[in-house]
Amino acid sequence: MAIVGIDAKLFVGVAGTTPSAEYENVRNVTFNLERSEIDATTRAADGWEVIIGGLKKATLEFESVPSLTDATYSDLQASFFGGTPIAIFVSDGNGRGLDADWVVTSFSENQGNDEVIATSIKCRPTFETRKPSWKTGSGGSTP
């Protein structure tokens, strides 16, 4: 069964803990997982470039509508200006996703003429307070 993006969840909380409060003031969430490529090519590869999977990399980007009464928005903004971690669990809505403490690396405002003002927020995991973990949705996790 397909999962619709609107059913996905973003939980935000205090760094060092798994967040349990859903943050609903988000839209257009993009979650990327990548691995670096380590070149392991030797002459024995018969002319082929051979790659070994390296470090995992995660990037989380989403939009939020600014609000003076939105405490989580203020926390995300404070994380950016202070360079301090914030807990975010990005989930498909079924409990599967990455639970980590993140650093907000970009906090950009779009002031389009025919749209509400929206803040584009970009986050990267940090190990400052706890290591990232992948939740499988069945209560389990992988490192």
Radius of gyration: 18 Å
Structural class: mainly beta
| Terminal CA distance | 26 Å
Beta-strand percentage range? over 45%
Major beta sheet summary: 8 strands, antiparallel
Percent of residues in helical segments?
Answer: under 10%
Give the overall shape, derived from the CA principal axes: elongated
* Topology pattern, helix = H, strand = E: EEEHEEEEE
What is the total tally of β strands? 8
Total helical elements: 1
Unreliable runs: none
Oligomer: single chain
Mean pLDDT: 93
Question: Which features does this protein show?
Answer:
mainly beta; 8% helix; 48% strand; single chain; 143 residues; 1 helix
Task: Describe, in plain words, how this protein is organized in 3D.
The chain is mainly beta. Helix content is 8%, strand content 48%. It contains 1 helix and 8 strands. Strands 1, 2, 3, 4, 5, 6, 7 and 8 form an 8-stranded antiparallel β-sheet that branches.
